Amino acid sequence: MQEVESLPRFATPSRPIRERTRYARPKVAVDTVVFAVQNCRLKTYLVQLKGGALRGRWAFPGGLVRVGETLDEAAGRELRAATGLGGAYMEQLFSFGDPARDPRAHVVSVAYVALLPDPAIVGAPAEKYSAGGWFEVGARLPPLAYDHEQMARYALRRLTAKLEYSNIAVALLPRVFTFKQLEDLYATLLGRRLDRRNFRRRILAMRILRELSAKQHGAHRPATLYSFVSRTPHVVQML
């Protein structure tokens, strides 16, 4: 009887799968929640995904971090691609690492918040997106991809909290503004009416504003114009 040559021993199918899982590493992405105030309404900028399993869903501008790129560089690059903007105020928020947050792979996202003084300065998004647009916060947003609803809530909480201990409003106002514009901004972000006299007294006592000689003329009495003493956001007890 002919002897059958023994076959080489291969790993069972489960072994290479376990090995790939064991040595695989999560990818790192950045996503930026963009806020601006228009007509006493807080708005956020969303882009519509063009491809993939979540095609058609809306999300915050973002993407994977490239090799040799810092997180800040990646966030700035992705924001420019989505809005055409460079130099906007940005700060890092939080890291979102649920392994199931992205249906394609295990992706850890480092979230940022960007603040703009005027929504009109945003241009058309890059070709990687189907569309881009501003949506009012608090109104019904379109279905968001990934865990971006959670990201939006976290960013809004951070923004409103920072109003109480910093001059973060500087990033949401033009360089020159009236006191009413400042008051309206705080009322919009805090979601409540303010005691105008008390608010004015406390803000002016902190000496973070510079009163200008120019006036804003309109249908009513000319309004005094102000600017921030410092254009750099920093900690200060405000409210």
Shape: elongated
Q: Which band does the percent of strand residues land in? A: 25-35%
User: At the fourth CATH level, what is the homologous superfamily of the largest domain?
Assistant: Nucleoside Triphosphate Pyrophosphohydrolase
For the record, the count of structural domains works out to 2
Number of strand segments:
10
Contiguous low-pLDDT stretches (5 residues minimum) are: 1-15
Q: Give the SSE string.
A: HEEEEHEEEHEHHEE
Give a description of the structure.
The protein folds into two domains: 137 residues, Nucleoside Triphosphate Pyrophosphohydrolase (Alpha-Beta Complex), CATH 3.90.79.10; 61 residues, Arc Repressor Mutant, subunit A (Orthogonal Bundle), CATH 1.10.10.10. A hairpin with an 8-residue loop joins strand 2 and strand 3. The protein is of the alpha+beta class. The N terminus is likely disordered. The strands form two sheets. Strands 1, 2, 3, 4, 5, 6 and 7 form a seven-stranded mixed beta sheet that branches. It has a three-stranded antiparallel beta sheet with strand order 8-10-9.
Considering the chains and any ligands shown, give keywords for the structure:
alpha+beta; Nucleoside Triphosphate Pyrophosphohydrolase; Arc Repressor Mutant, subunit A; 2 domains; seven-stranded mixed β-sheet; three-stranded antiparallel β-sheet; 10 strands; disordered N terminus
Furnish the topology, listing elements before pairings.
Blueprint lengths: L13 H10 L3 E12 L2 E9 L8 E2 L2 E3 L6 H13 L5 E8 L10 E10 L12 E8 L11 H15 L14 E2 H12 L5 H10 L3 E8 L6 E6 L11
